[in-house]
Specification:
Elements (H helix, E strand, L loop, with lengths): L5 E2 L8 E2 L40 H13 L14 H4 L6 E3 L13 E5 L5 E4 L1 H25 L3 H13 L6 H4 L3 H9 L8 H14 L2
Antiparallel strand pairs: 1-2, 3-4, 4-5
């Protein structure tokens, strides 16, 4: 699984981090009640994302290191987690540091990137990488819940649901992830009522962003 993209502004000025918005109203309700009582729960795995990548400025790698130290949560084994920061956040590929951050409309000390091919500027920070990683993690456990439920694996679905419920209270998540409570209400909440449709809609958007 690749990245949740940073929405870069065209021209000068900082970018706004975007993430997929779920559909608040499902098109149809499906029962999310597992049909078997399997007790097999695959152990979650620790994911190490390589921050030193050819073509990525060292200043950017350092920001990723800072973010990843704040969000150190295991992923489900079923998820294809990003292997490098370029997979997590494609904005960092084929970019250069903008030395004149004043002309770019940024705050002093900001790390500004300029796309070599597109010609836009965007500000990138540890916050960028934190949001990318946290939302990728959320997608991973949401996918785990849906897969387990549809396979009738009760214990596996319950374990995934527990991770999802804890998401807003994990360190720094409520402070940094935009609209996290709305995300929980519209996507995770319906799972308890047996409705998988909002989760499936959200996951489609996760995958479309990852594919670029």
């Amino acid at each position: 699984m690749g990245a949740l993209l940073l929405g870069a502004s065209v021209g000068c000025g900082p970018a706004v981090t975007e993430f997929p918005k779920p559909s608040a109203t499902p098109t149809s309700a499906e029962s999310a009640t597992p049909t078997t009582t399997s007790t097999i729960v695959p152990a979650p795995v620790d994911v190490s994302i390589e921050t030193r990548v050819e073509g990525v400025p060292e200043e950017v790698s350092a920001l990723a290191d800072e973010a990843f130290a704040l969000f150190d949560q295991p992923f489900p084994a079923s998820w294809d987690a990003p292997a490098t920061i370029a997979e997590l956040e494609p904005l960092v590929a084929d970019t250069v540091i903008v030395e004149d951050w004043i002309s770019a409309g940024a705050e002093p000390g900001s790390v500004m990137l300029e796309s070599i091919e597109e010609g836009y500027w965007a500000e990138i920070s540890a916050h960028t990488f934190f949001v990318d990683l946290a939302l990728n993690w959320h997608c991973a456990w949401l996918n785990e819940f849906v897969e387990a439920t549809e396979a009738g694996e009760v214990a596996r679905a319950a374990a995934a649901h527990e991770y999802l419920l804890k998401f807003p209270d994990m360190p720094q998540v409520r402070e940094q992830v935009p609209d996290v409570d709305d995300l929980q209400d519209t996507v995770v909440g319906p799972l308890s009522e047996g409705d998988l449709e909002p989760a499936k809609s959200y996951l489609e958007q996760c995958r479309s962003l990852a594919e670029g």
